[in-house]
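Researcher: Next entry in the queue.
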Amino acid sequence: MADVERRNALTVYGAHNGAIMASCLVEVDESSAVVRLTGVLDAAGAEAVRGALLTRLADRPGPVVADVTGLRFVEPAGRRVFADIRREVADWPAADLLLCDPTAAGPAHPDSAAAGTAHPDPALDGVPAWPTLDGALAAVAAAPLAAVLTAELAPAVGAARQARELVNTGCERWGMPTLADPACIAVTEMVNNVVAHAKTPMTVRLAPQETTLHLAVRDHSPRRPTFAGISPPTRAGGRGLLLIDTVTRRWGSSAIPDGKVVWCVLHPDDEAV
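Model: Structure for this entry, 273 residues:
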């Protein structure tokens, strides 16, 4: 495959009653926002495609363009995976999924290129789509990622302090002073959970979205946080998720093949006195 140092490839196989029926090749261009999918996608392969795209979105800030020009769908579940992914990352900081699909109509007017268009296929409705790769990449370029901060941290003492410094920098830069303290509380608990439980390197990312602040911590452990409400007074620990739940508008976690993303959203209205 040409340019092998810049691309990673994954072949996804679908099966029925143990027999291989179809395959989809997923190529990740490390130098751009493009992930190319070619071949045949069925329901069995949809989950692996979901994992590949979520991993790319977790590892690279900004929108990802899924180029499905060379992809054939054989089951509705294969088509639905893209809308499912877009819903999954809606609250991640600086993350979105776009499509390059020749069957898309394209924007109705040149000035609306950055907005894309609803896909004519109901299973893909809500996913911005362009009929050409140039059009999709132009939309990505029209919304540069000036407002995103990322830090790679080790699971060690001091990681939470570094994450708080990143949050304070972002809130000052983006004019969100009322969100600095609650965001520091949330990111401290998120990072400390990685240090105490996942024990893997982590990526902390934050970005504004209109008036809200979006935070995420990505690690390499499959163990997802579970929140069972308020802990009894006699129980030691277990209050970190309660703090996150208290200071954020909403929070959650997303499983990815080599770990997870824990995210939260903070809103200034929640901090009004």
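Model: Confidence is low (pLDDT under 50) at residues 1-5, 15-21, 108-115, 232-237.
Researcher: Noted, moving on.
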